[in-house]
TrEMBL record:
Organism listed in the record: Pseudocohnilembus persalinus
GO cellular component: cytosol
Protein family (similarity comment): Belongs to the oxoprolinase family.
Domain Acetophenone carboxylase-like C-terminal, first and last residues per copy: 565-731
Protein name per its UniProtKB record: 5-oxoprolinase
Domain called Hydantoinase B/oxoprolinase: residue spans: 756-1119
Ranges where the Hydantoinase/oxoprolinase N-terminal domain occurs: 10-222
Pfam families in the record: Hydant_A_C, Hydant_A_N, Hydantoinase_A, Hydantoinase_B
Region entry Disordered, spans: 923-958, 1115-1137
Biased composition (Polar residues): 942-958, 1115-1126
Length: 1137
């Protein structure tokens, strides 16, 4: 074939270190792929500069058999397609190397993005610094638009006034303040003089009225600003905070991207066709080079891998006969982290909110969850627990086996176990970069670590057992995000196929699948470079939306929605046709963003075949959150059309069906090696003779039984003894579990469960994962801004006596007080039955302030409560003398709102809605301030008749429907926790789970005891010694702490004797929240990560005088103390001590 008849399709994944290129070589006449392969090189090099250009140059030079000098113009005539995923924008954001950007925002909102939301990355880090802002200047634009309630028009506002008009969405708007051109020009000139390169224009209500943003754009353009991002174009949605962040990110990154694209394209001659160049976006779709934007580029790298795994393994879903699998889980394990996502066989799930490097992003992107566990994750041992990550040892010095005096990492553990073999690993180490991995160094370091572990725990583990232990802990860490994406959304991971890719993923595939109950694993031939391969199969996408505020199936909402869909579809089609596509290449997917009225979590609903959006929305809501809100209207938030086009060559469909199979005995074996695996039946790590095969020598229909290892060019596939392999028609690998296994740990009822440091780490992860998944459900389904955006909630699980087992680190003030709350119920509500859920918010029943409502659900087993789950959420209003239930001048608890010690709200699985409404709205008249001598009066008992709690004659809630919605969300969160605990018990047995609950609490206790001893010695205290710290409130009330540390028992006494009496103003602090301050400070003082549970308080005795500022009487006012000063003043006193 003539070289002139060759065409090249390049798909390039440009990573931070390496660039992977997948090239297809086509015949110009037949348009058929004659040859394809993968090429890998460094992304940057002093000699050749940019990796993608150099890779293309080398491939063209080789295939066309013509010299193309280094750094010369690359001929583009025979480049048929060029697709790229890049981390250029991601790296610029992480390293804060974007353009000098200014934010232009409506007057009065200067601090909008500084405030942001209340995301708390690490609440225990006392030295945590705010991420550097991506904008350098803020300019306030004196303009304002008001969206008018249609009721005002009906009530007689003069529609003829010039400032009032309707937009195309039939909204009434009033221009309160127009843009002053002269003033804006002066402001822009000042920015120009300061060297500002990019502008982010974010005005209030611009999605409804964009003229003001467009005016400022024109002024800025006239002054020579080249990068101007308008919020109504970048993110045409309500919610100015995420819209502001996203638009500013767009302005910040676009110049970086344009600079890279310009440098890239100038490396080719004039024959390169720009319409054939596409870049991967965060949503998994390709964008033409001129439309590639910073705000949609952050996940450009990992998105290609997601497309790759979906396209290569969806045949498994299409060809299955029994339809037992619901989807595919993508598992991309690299050196420092692991990315996971899911695909249902039709479409990926897109999410519209994410926080990356301190920036909130609200453009569509694939729902990819990341955990800091990879081949380079650091291994450590602290306080009896095996730790993997989150720190990485990096590429240099790297793992110990690299020979650069590095630290032990997951790669070292795999090397010790024989799963990574120096014989088959690139010989790129040593001074001359020509030596194999240094296994002897890894063995030496592992022996030192093993000795440390055996000494600390009085065990006799071998280095192989320790290495396997760290692999198990790493595997469990990587299972956590998978459980979030499946169990957290109402799905079972056992109903999915696992698709493994990334350089290190195939070493862990079988073990991860076993942990999740997954029975089939697919590994593609190009699994090590699947991101590049995925780019070759990706669609070119136009994805646009339009805000539309209306109610589903009311008035002409459906008609307007359809009209907007048609308008968006037409615009998308025109853009795709400009990129060379025809109508028959294009598919359209139409969505409505729907949510319940009063809530804040929308669901993107694809237009169903029968057109019934309401039914489709309810089905999705029920599956993901476990409940419906039948009494609430369904609101339309926006209309979206996603249009896709593709001319990529069809992938030859893969298959598992053969007439004859090649049995293991017929295969060529590369070698037989000693590899260590865990024998699950005998519960020990043992040595196996393991056959090693080379992937290129395995033919379709080949069968292999584990244990075995397959060496691929880009990865090593480790097959555990319980698994078997089939090579598919397209020479890919399918792993299947040999037989169904009963995974429950069988424990003799008479035998004692002994603590194992490996299992200890695994259970710590599992318990915390349950609390985190509860939190996700609550945040997604709650109504109150306090829950949705301020994240003022917490979720936790407790043992049968109410002791804290795991508390997701949501809010410091809740950490210890919920334990007090659960214990109070156990001790005072004696007839608690299964399927009975309790509400409580009274400070003397372990509550904080009254808006913080606790929902507690018992977990029963064989007729007994074995665990409790609870969540606390801040409600928008619970009555009281002021809206919001946070009165600044309350004189007693009644003035602050409605209070219940024990209120049953669910019985026999049914919500007692009438009793709940009666409680929330019980009063008919406004409260009257009681006399001062009523301060000490005891409220009526509520234990025996919980539905009659708090019968005071005051005002009930002002936001009944919001309260009911938030309470349903809290119940749903608890239901999720109950389901996950029962699943854990089914997997391990109740005795085993309870044993490790106690071990983890003991581990936290040991961590605090060690901290107390270290603190005492560091401060040169005597064996038994004390310090005293005093602080004062603004009114002169004293907080006094005498902290005594006893090194002989490794314990401490927190004595608040001498603290002032409770006061008539509302700065009193309930005992439960004082306990929160103590546990929070203790956890912050422990240098290493330890489980957060009741064990932290075991070494501590606490003395708090009754009727004092920190332990007030039942009826004392506590509102402002709780909300503003309670967490801080006692905590400050503790830290000072």
């Amino acid at each position: 074939m003539s070289k002139e008849n060759l065409l090249f399709n390049f798909s390039i994944d440009r990573g931070g270190t390496f660039t992977d290129i997948y090239v297809e070589i086509l015949d110009k006449e037949s348009n058929q792929v004659n040859k394809s392969y993968v090429y890998k090189l460094l992304s940057e090099d002093k000699e050749y500069g940019d990796g993608p250009k150099e890779g293309i140059r080398r491939i063209l030079e080789k295939e066309l058999e013509t010299e193309i000098p280094l750094n010369s113009k690359i001929p583009g005539k025979q480049i048929n397609s060029l697709r790229m995923g890049t981390t250029v924008a991601t790296n610029a954001l992480l390293e804060r190397k974007g353009a000098k950007t200014a934010l232009l925002v409506t007057k009065g909102f200067r601090d909008l993005l500084y405030i942001g939301n209340q995301t708390r990355p690490d609440i225990f880090d006392l030295s945590m610094a705010r991420e550097k802002s991506i904008f350098e200047e803020v300019v306030e634009i004196d303009e304002r638009i008001r969206i008018i309630n249609p009721q005002e028009i009906e009530n007689g506002i003069n529609y003829a006034e010039k400032t009032i008009f309707q937009n195309d969405l039939k909204e009434y708007l009033e221009i309160i303040k127009s843009v002053n051109k002269q003033k804006v020009m002066e402001q822009l000139n000042e920015l120009k003089e300061k060297g500002i390169e990019a502008l982010s224009i974010v005005l209030m209500h611009s999605p409804s009225f964009s003229d003001h943003e467009k005016q400022i754009y024109k002024y800025a353009k006239d002054l020579g600003f080249k990068q101007i991002s308008l919020s109504h174009e970048v993110m045409p949605m309500i919610k100015i905070v995420p819209r502001g962040f996203t638009t500013t990110l767009d302005a910040y990154l676009n110049p970086v991207i344009h600079s890279y694209l310009t440098a890239f394209t100038t490396g080719f001659d004039e024959d390169l066709k720009f319409q054939n160049i596409f870049f991967m976006q965060s949503d998994g779709g390709l964008a033409a080079i001129k439309e590639f934007r910073g705000s949609r580029s952050i996940l450009s790298g990992p998105a290609g891998g997601s497309i790759g795994y979906a396209q290569t393994s969806k045949f498994l879903l299409e060809q299955q006969k029994e339809k037992k699998y619901k989807g595919i889980i993508g598992f991309d394990m690299g050196g420092t982290s692991t990315d996971v996502s899911t695909y249902d066989g039709v479409q990926f799930e897109h999410i519209f909110d994410a926080q990356i490097a301190g920036v909130q992003i609200n453009t569509p992107h694939l729902d990819i969850n990341t955990v800091a566990a990879g081949g380079g994750s650091k291994l450590s041992f602290y306080n009896g627990i095996f730790k993997v990550g989150p720190e990485s040892v990096g590429a240099l010095p790297g793992p110990v086996c690299y020979g650069h005096d590095g630290q032990l990492a997951v790669t070292d553990a795999n090397l010790i176990l024989g799963r990574v073999n120096p014989k088959y690993f690139p010989k790129i180490f040593g001074p001359k970069k020509n030596e194999p991995l240094f296994k002897d160094l890894a063995i030496k370091k592992f022996q030192e670590l093993t000795d440390q572990i055996n000494k600390a725990d009085n065990t006799n583990l071998t280095i192989y057992e320790v290495a396997q232990g760290y692999i198990k802990v790493a595997n469990e860490s990587m299972c956590r995000p998978i459980r979030t994406l499946t169990q957290g959304k109402g799905s079972d991971p056992r109903n999915f196929i696992l698709n493994i890719f990334g350089g290190a993923g195939a070493q862990h595939a079988c073990a991860v699948a076993k942990n999740l109950g997954i029975k089939e694993i697919f590994i593609h031939e190009y699994s090590g470079v699947l991101s590049a391969f995925g780019l070759a199969r990706a669609d070119v996408v136009q994805d646009n939306s339009h805000p539309f505020q209306s109610y589903l199936n009311e008035g002409d909402s459906i008609k307007i929605s359809k009209d907007l869909m048609h308008k968006l579809q037409k615009a998308n089609t025109e853009k795709l046709k400009k990129n060379g596509f025809e109508d028959n290449d294009i598919k359209h997917f139409k969505y409505l963003s729907l949510l319940y009225e009063g809530t804040d979590t929308s669901i993107m609903v694809l237009e169903p075949e029968d057109g019934d959006f309401q039914k489709a929305f309810q089905e999705q809501h029920q599956q993901e959150f476990g409940f419906l809100q039948q009494n609430k209207r369904i609101k339309i938030e926006s209309v979206r059309v996603r249009s896709t086009a593709n001319k990529s060559p069809e992938i030859q469909e893969d298959s598992l069906i053969f007439e004859n199979y090649i049995e293991e005995e017929e295969l060529s074996v590369l070698s037989t090696e000693s590899v260590y695996f865990e024998n699950y039946e005998e519960k020990k790590v043992q040595e196996y003779d393991c056959k090693v095969y080379e992937m290129k020598n395995l033919q379709p229909s080949s069968k292999i039984n584990g244990p075995a290892i397959i060496i691929n060019e880009t990865s090593t596939i480790v097959i555990l003894p319980e698994w078997k392999v089939l090579i598919t028609k397209n020479k890919n690998v399918l792993l299947q579990l040999k037989k169904e296994e009963h995974t429950k740990v069988n424990v003799d009822s008479k035998s004692e469960v002994k603590s194992n440091p490996i299992e200890l780490s695994i259970f710590s992860n599992r318990f915390m994962s349950i609390a985190e998944q509860m939190g996700r459900v609550l945040q997604k389904t709650g109504t109150s801004t306090n829950i949705k955006e301020r994240l003022d909630f917490s979720c936790a699980l407790f043992g049968p006596k109410g002791n804290l087992v795991a508390n997701a680190p949501h809010l410091p003030v809740h950490l210890g007080s919920m334990q007090e709350c659960v214990k109070w119920q156990i001790n005072n509500y004696k007839n608690w039955t299964e399927d009975e859920i309790i509400l409580t918010n009274h400070p003397h029943a372990g509550g904080s302030h009254l808006p913080d409502i606790n929902i507690i659900t018992p977990v029963f087993h064989d007729g007994k409560p074995i665990f409790y789950v609870a969540c606390r959420g801040h409600h928008a209003d619970v009555g009281g003398i002021t809206p919001g239930s946070m009165p600044p001048f309350s004189k007693n608890l009644q003035e602050e709102g409605i209070a219940a010690k024990t209120l049953v709200i669910v019985r026999d699985g049914q919500l007692l809605e009438q009793e709940l409404i009666k409680f929330l709205t019980q009063s008919e008249t406004s409260p009257k301030a009681p006399q001062q001598n009523q301060q000490k009066e005891q409220p009526q008992k509520t234990d025996s008749q919980p539905q009659e709690a708090n019968q005071w004659n005051g005002r009930g809630t002002r936001t009944l429907q919001d309260n009911l919605s938030d309470l349903r969300a809290q119940i749903a969160a608890n239901n999720q926790g109950v389901k996950l605990i029962k699943s854990l018990i089914n997997e391990y047995s109740l005795k085993y789970v309870h044993a490790y609950m106690n071990f983890i609490q003991k581990n936290a206790e040991n961590g605090v005891r060690h901290m107390l001893e270290t603190l005492s010695k560091r401060n040169k205290m005597k064996e038994v010694d004390y310090v005293i710290s005093e602080d004062y409130m603004d009114d002169g009330s004293k907080i006094r702490l005498k902290l005594t540390i006893d090194r002989t028992t490794k314990s401490a006494i927190f004595d608040f004797t001498g603290t002032g009496y409770e006061v008539l103003t509302n700065i009193n602090c309930p005992r439960s929240v004082t306990m929160s301050a103590i546990i929070y400070c203790l956890r912050c003082l422990v240098d290493e990560e330890i489980p957060l549970n009741s064990g932290c308080l075991t070494p501590i005795d606490v003395i708090i005088p009754e009727n004092s500022l920190l332990n007030p009487s039942e009826n004392a006012p506590i509102e402002q103390r709780t909300q503003f000063q309670k967490p801080s003043k006692p905590a400050e006193t503790l830290k000072a001590a």
